[in-house]
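Quick review question:
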């Protein structure tokens, strides 16, 4: 997937001017936070569970080599095969080789953000293999040739009329009088088309929410059942997963599953939670004849032992997206790559470089809601600050920004000069703006006034007020 993260500001401007996107965001904004809040309120031990989840992930990352080797050994013991891939190119090659050996013409896919990171659909199409997305949201955006805009609700940016328009453009046998009045109509139309594709597929590709070292199992959660059909009907099952998805035991996976659904969709558990272990055994009623796990690094091991290691705890629940004021203003596509929102603002620079994704850590109000709702307590604002520091150290920030920070730094190291300058500035701006009470334009503040008014200062400065309150014994 081509990264347009360097164009974040232009992407965001287009998003703000898109009435359809703004309608979709407004319609969905309240839903996820409300559901999560209700689910958390119904589980008194949720905060304790967050600490346990954090500790499980920290322990695993500290011993990642051991658990990955244990996982691989148990996959092989169960009749599967693990493909170790350092880069996206290696992972794409591994998937293509498996499909070619199977003689695959059609591949069904369950939800997998790793497949988006790898650009698997385009790669398969270029090599004569037809990929078919089976998740409802992924299916519609595949018809529209669009990337996901959300990591669990890929068609988050669409309205009902967009779905109907896409079906009418792609399903040529659709009757003209067919009505799509609610989600059930949309689901029925997609199911009618996908049922045949499930049965015809030679290979099924899924993601993995967790990999269990103890058993060599992969775990996938869905609400539509498409993950089960993608894993069990084709002759070959490929599970795509990044290395940090491994957890030590079944018990650990179940603990994290209790956090995942509540944080993601406000459910106690997803409708389907499927554990896959190896290929079909002689007495199994169904299942694939071959089971492959493609394990992807693609920059993640370079984050181990650094200030960004905490990001590898992420379980992809999207709670940070669902509570982010920036995400809900510009949508997911503005972030310009696979992972949007606060988690993407930290993960994307680590995977494609801060030179390409430096705008993302700056696209934050630092309100802290992302960290407060993260089920494994990732300190996302702190990690974004670290990326800002890296960006500044590498001279990637604009010259005007660097000059402004140097000027502020000079004053910040000289408290007397800082107080004097703020008093002069506050009094000068207060006098100039006393008639209207605001500024619609101001030299050196065009980045602010281009989108909003700047209130004129009133009264004394904070330092003066604080000193006065101290003298009065009130501070």
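Suggested answer, residue by residue:
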């Amino acid at each position: 997937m081509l990264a347009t993260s360097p164009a974040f500001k232009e992407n965001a401007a287009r998003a703000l001017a898109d009435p359809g996107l703004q309608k979709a965001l407004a319609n969905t904004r309240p839903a996820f936070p409300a559901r999560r809040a209700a689910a958390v309120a119904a589980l008194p031990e949720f905060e304790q569970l967050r600490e346990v989840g954090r500790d499980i992930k920290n322990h695993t990352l500290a011993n990642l080599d051991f658990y990955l080797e244990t996982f691989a050994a148990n996959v092989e013991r169960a009749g599967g095969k693990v493909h170790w891939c350092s880069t996206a190119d290696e992972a794409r090659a591994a998937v293509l080789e498996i499909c070619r050996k199977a003689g695959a013409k059609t591949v069904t896919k369950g939800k997998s953000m790793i497949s988006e990171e790898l650009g698997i659909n385009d790669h398969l199409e270029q090599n004569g293999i037809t990929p078919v997305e089976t998740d409802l949201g992924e299916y519609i955006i595949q018809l529209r040739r669009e990337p996901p805009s959300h990591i669990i609700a890929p068609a988050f940016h669409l309205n009902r009329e967009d779905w109907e328009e896409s079906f009418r453009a792609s399903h040529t046998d659709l009757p003209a009088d067919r009505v799509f009045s609610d989600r059930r109509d949309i689901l029925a139309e997609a199911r009618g088309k996908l049922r045949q594709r499930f049965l015809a597929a030679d290979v099924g590709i899924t993601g993995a929410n967790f990999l269990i070292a103890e058993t060599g199992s992969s775990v996938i959660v869905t609400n539509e059942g498409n993950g089960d059909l993608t894993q069990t009907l084709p002759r070959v099952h490929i599970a795509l997963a990044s290395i940090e998805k491994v957890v030590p035991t079944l018990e650990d996976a179940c603990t994290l599953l209790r956090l995942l659904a509540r944080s993601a969709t406000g459910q106690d558990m997803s409708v389907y939670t499927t554990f896959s272990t190896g290929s079909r055994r002689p007495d199994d009623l169904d299942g694939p004849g071959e089971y492959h796990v493609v394990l992807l690094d693609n920059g993640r091991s370079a984050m181990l032992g650094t200030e960004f290691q905490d990001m590898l705890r992420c379980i992809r629940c999207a709670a940070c997206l669902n509570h982010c004021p920036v995400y809900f203003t510009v949508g997911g596509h503005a972030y310009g790559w696979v992972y949007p929102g606060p988690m993407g603002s930290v993960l994307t620079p680590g995977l494609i470089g801060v030179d390409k994704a430096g705008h993302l850590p700056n696209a934050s109000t630092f309100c802290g809601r992302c960290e407060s709702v993260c089920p494994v307590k990732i300190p996302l604002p702190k990690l974004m600050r670290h990326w800002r520091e890296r960006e500044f150290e590498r001279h990637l920030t604009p010259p005007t920004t660097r000059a402004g920070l140097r000027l502020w730094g000079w004053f910040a190291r000289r408290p007397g000069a800082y107080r004097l300058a703020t008093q002069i500035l506050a009094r000068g701006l207060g006098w100039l703006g006393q008639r209207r009470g605001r500024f619609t334009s101001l030299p050196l503040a065009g980045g602010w006034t281009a989108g909003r008014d700047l209130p004129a200062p009133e009264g004394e400065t904070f330092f003066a007020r604080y000193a006065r309150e101290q003298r009065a014994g009130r501070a």
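Why it works: The mean pLDDT is 92. The radius of gyration is 25 Å.
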